[in-house]
Amino acid sequence: MTPRRTALVAAAARLFAERGYHGTSMADLAEALGVQKGSLYSLTESKQALLVDVTRDGAAAFGRALDSVPDEAEPLERLRRALRAHLEVVAGQLHAATVFTREWRFLEEPELTAFRVERRRYEERWRALFREASERGALRSDLDVEAAVLLVLSAANWAYTWLRPGADTASLADRFFAILLDGVRGYAPPRS
Amino acid sequence: MTPRRTALVAAAARLFAERGYHGTSMADLAEALGVQKGSLYSLTESKQALLVDVTRDGAAAFGRALDSVPDEAEPLERLRRALRAHLEVVAGQLHAATVFTREWRFLEEPELTAFRVERRRYEERWRALFREASERGALRSDLDVEAAVLLVLSAANWAYTWLRPGADTASLADRFFAILLDGVRGYAPPRS
DNA sequence: CCTACCGATCGGTAGG
DNA sequence: CCTACCGATCGGTAGG
After folding, report:
1. CA–CA dist B79, B73 (Å, integer)
2. CB B37 under 7 Å to nucleic chain D
3. pTM, full prediction
4. B45 CB less than 7 Å from any atom of strand D
């Protein structure tokens, strides 16, 4: 990947995030790079190919985030680290994360199907983290694991709308996690 | 509002949700209604005006949802009812809710600013529900209320991506709420 | 509600 | 990387 192409993919990430895939023209991208529109086609074969590249960058970053969670840590600590890592990708690569979360649906086949498979794999990794925690007794025995996974993924997937790059992301993740752990209620929950 | 115009706004909600605002052409809308493109302009003055209508419908529905929460109920019950009502709007008016949540950013001024004001007002109503619960002693005294509001709004705002109209929405809302209340941890949380 | 049309812009290409 | 261009489509309008 040449520096020029890298710059083009970065510009695509930014503009697709800001204006949407269909709201961004090749002329917009050319202007962002300071070249004429026709010149872009020596760097990419199509606008769609740029969307493929940006969504792949996002998927790879989120995948690496979960890879960074240490296997040997305790189950709840692994969950906390996973949430931190996810939110750090959102804050650190906000444009790619935004396109990954919101613009992926404009992918064309076969990449559209491949994207869905990849995203499902990512969600399964989260489910596995919860199941592992459950089997090792770290979670309430009556926990609705599916709802818990959906809740944490909702927080993770919505974060691109409010998380700003300068924020103390680790601390924010921990604040979320604290509520996820113990809830909001003002007295000890009834034991089953 | 004539029946024909209502049908046009409904078609716009569906297509803007499915293909995005910029991914939907006036020709697409005409085809959905079975008329020629030029005929649409007796029903709306522009494509942008349709986006304004759909986002207003969404805002009104979410507003009515919070209105439906009984004032006299207990604080936690009010929160539970609010989450239910919000998710029922998402499931019951999925297209308008999707456009409200994802396509609003293509509004032009002055409606763009008005939308942001309205949405902030909605979020403030949620914050007020939490504050009320806190003041009445229904929440943990050490609760991070801001994080709690953000967590529940994340779940609410992400719901359009997975909630399907046929689902048992009330039950789903209660499953979320149960986790929000008591958390996922497998033992009683330490009291402060 | 239709036909016929407007100028502008779209993604992309050819040839240099 | 540029100029010049392609056919297709865009949102919107005029006149009926």
Report:
1. 10
2. yes
3. 0.94
4. yes
